[in-house]
Structures are given as structure tokens and as C-alpha cells.
Amino acid sequence: MELIKLTLPNGDIIEVTSGTTIAEAAASLSGRLAKDAVCGRFNGELKDLSYRLTENGKLEIVTTDSPDGVDVMRHTVSHVMAQAVQRLWPGTKLAIGPTIQDGFYYDFDMEHTLSSDDLEKIEAEMAKIIAEDYEITREELAPEAARALFESQNATYKLELIEGLDEQISVYRQGEFVDLCRGPHLPSTGRIKAFKLLSVAGAYWRGDSRNKMLQRVYGTAFFKKSQLDEYLKRLEEAAKRDHRKIGRELDLFSIVDEGPGFPFFHPKGMVLRNVLENFWREEHIKRGYSEVKTPIMLREELWHRSGHWDHYKDNMYFSEIENQRYAVKPMNCPGGILMYQRKIHSYRDLPIRMGELGLVHRHELSGTLHGLMRVRSFTQDDAHIFMRPDQVEAEIIGVIDLIDYVYKIFGFPYHVELSTKPKNAMGDDAIWDMATDALRKALENKGLEYKVNEGDGAFYGPKIDFHLQDCVGRTWQCATIQLDFLLPERFDLYYIGEDGQKHRPVMLHRVVFGALERFIAILTEHFAGAFPTWLAPVQVMLIPVAEDHLPYAREIAAKLSEFGIRYEIDERNEKIGRKIREAQLQQIPYMLVVGTNEMNEGTVAVRHRRQGDLGKFGLERFIEQITSEIKEKKLD
RNA sequence: GCCGAUGUAGCUCAGCAGGUAGAGCACUUCCAUGGUAAGGAAGGGGUCACCGGUUCAAGUCCGGUCAUCGGCUCCA
After folding, report:
1. Statement: the CB of A584 is under 7 Å from strand B
2. What is the ipTM of this complex?
3. Which of A15, A29, A130, A301 is deepest in the core (most CB within 10 A)?
4. Based on the number of CB atoms within 10 Å of its own CB, is A320 exposed (0-12), middle (13-18) or buried (19 or more)?
């Protein structure tokens, strides 16, 4: 009998007879491994436990506690779900059923429209399939055989998928169910422990809106019930933080039927905005930016010149003034360019860093609107940097530093992605290579790790995107840095060089927050409404114990006011328990309770929204403390 | 825009065998002057998203429109 050598992850080499399955190899290593094995990774490729090893190679047993193991299991659950759906609604055609970030989905084409009640029925049928514990087997077929199989089932989507495959095709069977699949899978349906179907939604076949809309069922699964429960709790937690809910409760903003996608900012939301804007201005002034404001509407002709008409007109709003066509700006750059062109620039003037908190309007499809996250009018914290080619790298580094500084203030971890030349790009490869290199060098110079998105850049230049992570683990693309060679060309921008000749400047577009509206939404969810004191719309709630203490509370308020501290006085004739409860619910950082004792001593009783009663403070001491907390932009 | 669900007082929701609306919170007034997460009482408030249809009668059934929610596509 022929022996083969298997190299294990720890470097050990074991010998087994050729034809040994991965499951058997695992069992020979340890009982625990045999029990927890989900599949194997042989020479880098995931294989079923039943896979027979016939050559030397590297073997790793993938277990239930590895991300790959979970992924394989979820994929099997998606098959079980498909099986259940086909049992309940015969004739259902299967499209695709992959795993995703936290679960899986399967797309179905069926007569019956699924409701959320149906999810329970499907779950029950799935439980049966799991209890029946079918063995899951892999079969490899020649393309013709596979075609014949799926033709016999009238599985039109699978047939379409096979078109893209030319080598041998693998299918998996469990009981009466068969599906086209690369695998691997769990060895049997009984290995599924904890799953839950989450929602039904429409989804286009192959993600193309010209194609048929299918029904997609989302679900998730874990090896342990406790992990599933934990995940479901996290979803609940995220729902509790929904900025639309907190925005209403804390009276920050609203969106009404009269203006879908056009948010109203209430006084408290406006405080947040203004604090953010002031912070933004301070940091930009420090870094040599000037600030401009360009008009909301400009002649339509400008947008033809900029290329927006060709690439963006479906997202733009138009109007007419005295028989002239105008467009509402969807971006700030053309205005910024006109600003650059207002005079002749010397090479000595560059770089010009021109910031603008620019209100843009974009027509977004009605189905995509979402609170403040996705709106039709929003304020970009934009800036355009006009520079000489030799300044590109230093300017990019400057922007990276600014973004890093700002995100750290809010306590957001982030990761970076670099997007390169797309197919329909303008400009020749040499310019793109130079620009992409500049971005890459800047990133490497800063020692930042980054992921490359090939072909994902803007049509006018490559870009760096910053994805910040909130405390629920979700990531949001906010900041972006884009190099642009196209617009300077189109608008014939120039500066006068040392040689007295005209030279073409390079342009850089960038945002730090992204959009103020979205950033406020993210902050709201991240902090669950408990904004750090420097951001809190109301920083101090004054709580007089009884009516007699009102004058003293007002005295204190006047003092706080002198120091620019944002306060409110709860003047209602209510017990302090109630006043405290409501201040707590409003997530106000500090409550100052004042009664007879405080009045006599000239003190305040300080309560913090998280730490509770902090005891009596002299007013000066409290002001000193909160002022420094605000100044340092401390996080709780 | 597309698929599905939803739309009742400021908020959260009940009402559904079709017989012209109800609770809690919030709001107003009064009583209570209270020391660290809801004191008591009384009162005001809704063309049941909008438009049309069926019916003697529609929040309740049907159709359309709008908006919201979950996704898809797109994106700051």
C-alpha cells in the first residue's frame, strides 16, 4: 500500500496510506480534531472531509472555531434552506446561495411570494431536514452531464451558471436535493446546530436591475446556540442605536413627507453640526486651508464643460431662470475650479488648499433613502487642492494626517483602500501610473496598511478611501482622497512656472467627514446618543430641587453661560427623580442638582450620566473640570 | 427605480364580523414643594397618509398615488 506524506500546520509530517480521507486523517491526529473537523485545507484548497488524499501535501484540518469552518457550515445551511423551500413550494427555481459577512442568503424564483410568516415554516422544514441527518455527497460531472441533470430539473439559473464553467462541474446531494456547488460542505445535515432566518427581500438576478427580481431569504448560523443568541442580541443592539430613532428621541433632526431625503435639522441637531463645523474650520486653518463658498446653482453649460452632464446628469436637478438652463450642484468641484480661475497663479502660490462646506443636491432613487445616511441634499466637507506635480505626495500625506487626527478624536478605528484605474477611465496609463504611485507612496510612507481595489477608481483619477468602524463593528466609507488630472485639463487650468511658461496643476479632491449629515448619523449610532461632552447639544442640565431654588439655578446658569457651556434649566414643577430620569434619557453628560444645601454653601451637586452622583463641587471646580473635558474633546 | 411589508393623536401602539375611534407617554390646568431614573387629579388633542371606488354605511374591503421600513442597484 502506497504511503503519502502530509505536512501539518505545526510542521509535523505524518504518513498515511494513499486514499485516506481527510476525516480519517483528522481522527488519527486526535479525537477532538475528529469531532470538530468541518473540512480540510489541502495544499491551500478547501476540501470535504470525505476527500481522499492521494498525494503528498500540506494538510490543515478546518474546525468549527475557524472562520472558514463557519463559512462552510453556513453554506450548507443555505443548501438546507433551499431544500426546505423546494419541499414547501415545489417548482421553485434556485439562483445562487452564497455566504456573506454574518450569514448567508439564497435567491429563489418562485410563484408564491414569501412573507415573514413563511420564514417560520421554512425554519421548521429545515429543522426536519437537519433531524433527518442526510449524508451530503459530492459528485463530479462533465459539463454535458451537468447540463443534462439541470435540464431535467428545469433549473434555468443553474444552467446559466454552468455556461460560465468549462471544466468538470461539482454538485452536492443531500436526500432528494441536488445543487450545483463548488463546496466544500459539512458531511451531513445533522451537523447544523444553530440557525435563524432573518428576512426576505427582492434581489435582481446577477445584481443587474435589467434582470428579473428574485426573492432572497437572508439567514445566519453558528456552531453554538450561544453564538447565535449573541449575534441576534448584537442586531437588537444595533437597532436600538438607529440614528433615526435616537434622532427623534433627542430631537436632533427629522425628515417629513413634504421633503423626502431633505432633512430638517432641529436646534439640538444644529448644535452638533455647528460644533463639528467649528472643529473642522479650526483644523483646516491650522493646516493652511482657506475657506470658500460657491453657489448652489450654476449655468447648465458649466456642467457640460466639467463632464458631469455626461456622467452624472441622471443624479442632477435642473431649473430655468429667465430662459436660461441652470443646474443645482451635485458636487463642489466645478465651482472650486471657477474660483481658481478667477486670477492667474504663480508656482509660488501652490499648493492652494481651498475648503468648502458645500451643500450639494443629488437625485437618489426613492428606494435608497435612509435617514441621514442617504439623503438628497447634504453638506460635503470638501476641499480642492491645486498643486504642482512635485507637491502631490506631500499634500496627500497632509490629508492622511488630517483624517487620522480627526478619526482618532472620535475614537474610530479605520482601514484604508486604494482604488486604481477603471475601464472607462480618461487619460493615458502613464499619468495614471504616476498618480497611483503617488497615492501608494504616500500610504507606504505613512506605514498604513491598505487593500487594493483594482479598477475601482473614479473615471478621472485613482483614490484612497477611509472606512471607519463604529462600536457595533460596522464600517462606513467616509473620507476619500481623489487625484484628478481630468478637470484641470478640461478647464485648461494653469499656473505660471519658474520658466515663465504655463503649466498644468494637479487637482486633489478630498473629504474628511464625507458628508456632515452621514457623519452625524454615524456619530449618533456610535455613541448611541451619548455624545462626548464637547459634542453634546446640552452639556449640563440644571435641576433645582424645588421652586425656591430656581433663582440660584439661574445664577449658576449665568456663570456657565460665561464659559460657553451649553445648559438647560429644568424649571418644571416636578420631583427631582423625574427631572433626573429625563435628563438621563436625553443623555445629558452632567446634571447639577441644586437645593437648599447647595444654595447655602454656594455649591452644586454633580451627577454624571454614567458615573452617577459625584457629590458636591464648588462651582469653579466643576467649571474647570468640564471646560477641560470639552477642550480636550475627551471621550467618556 | 425594482421586489416585499407598513402607514390610526407629538411618540409607542390597540381597534378590523365594515356601523363614523381608544390606551400609555407627552401637552395644558389644578393639587402636592419634592434630594438622585416616572407623585396625584382633571382636561385638550385625530378629515384613521392622500385620492377614487364598492356599500344604506369604510380606519376596517378594492384600485391608484405618496411616504416609511427591509433588501437589490447606486452612493457622501
Report:
1. yes
2. 0.93
3. A130
4. exposed
Domains and CATH numbers, chain A: 3-63 (3.10.20.30), 68-240 (3.30.980.10), 288-526 (3.30.930.10), 540-631 (3.40.50.800)
Q: Return the residue matching grid coordinates 473635558.
A: A629
All three cell numbers of A572, joined, read 418644571
CA–C1' gap, A545 and B44, in angstroms = 29
pLDDT tens-digit readout, A595-609: 999 999 999 999 999
Q: What is the pLDDT of residues A77-112, one digit of tens each?
A: 999 999 999 999 999 999 999 999 889 999 999 988
Catalytic choice (A74, A196, A216, A463): A463
Look at A427 and A103; give whichever has higher pLDDT.
A103
Nearest CA to A512 among A284, A342, A325?
A284
Cell representation of residue A308: 458631469
pLDDT at A166 over 80: no
Q: Which distant-in-sequence residues (6+ apart) come within 8 Å of A295 by Cβ? A: A329, A335
| DSSP letter assigned to residue A370 | B
Question: Which residues lie closer than 8 Å to A362 by C-beta, 6 or more apart?
Answer: A315, A316, A330, A376, A377, A378
Cα distance between residue A615 and residue A95, in whole Å:
64
Check if the beta carbon of residue A381 is closer than 8 Å to that of residue A354.
no
What SS3 state is found at A357?
Answer: strand
> How far is residue A147's CA from residue A205's CA, in Å, rounded to a whole number?
20
Beta bridge partners of A345: A495
Nearest nucleotide over every DNA/RNA strand to the A596 CA, judged by C1': B35
pTM listed for this prediction: 0.91
Write the pLDDT tens digit of every residue in A40-59: 999 888 999 989 888 898 88
Active site residue: A179, A382, A465, A484, which one?
A: A382
- Please tell me the distance from the alpha carbon of residue A399 to that of residue A353, in angstroms, as a whole number: 10
Q: Specify whether A333 is catalytic.
A: yes
pLDDT tier, A234 (very low <50, low <70, confident <90, very high otherwise):
confident
Active site residue A578: no
Please tell me whether any atom of strand B lies within 7 Å of the Cβ of A422.
Answer: no
Residue A9 to residue A28: CA distance in whole angstroms: 15
Q: Is A378 helix (H, G, I), strand (E, B) or coil?
A: strand
How do A463-469 and A495-496 pair as beta strands? unpaired
Q: Which residues pair with A382 in a beta bridge?
A: A356, A511
For strand B, is any atom closer than 7 Å to the CB of A365?
Answer: yes
Any atom of strand B under 7 A from CB of A211?
Answer: no
Nearest nt (C1') from A203 Cα: B72
* Residue A360 contacts strand B, CB under 7 A: no
Report helix, strand and coil shares of chain A as percent, to nearest 5.
40, 30, 30
